[in-house]
Amino acid sequence: METIDFEIRGELITLDALLKATGLAGSGGAAKVLIATGKVQVDGREELRRGAKLRPGQVVAVQGVRVHLRAEGEAGAPTAPELA
Questions:
Q1: pLDDT tens digits, residue range 14-37?
Q2: Which of 13, 30, 56, 80 is the most buried (most CB within 10 A)?
Q3: Are the beta carbons of 20 and 33 closer than 8 angstroms?
Q4: Where are the domains of the chain?
């Protein structure tokens, strides 16, 4: 399984925004479909809320990719892409 370390700017990020920012969903609509069809897990449990608030330390899994959320400036975490 591929692993991505993702740095959160600020206190939290919503699940749909994370999927878009990591490129796991090409749009908000695509993120909504992934979430609604039960293809996304947060900390090992299915997550059906697209606005679920994610914080550093959590792990999101979708389509063979695991995303580890890190706090801004945490060692080893690359800088997250700018959200438009």
A1: 999 999 999 999 999 999 999 999
A2: 13
A3: no
A4: 2-71
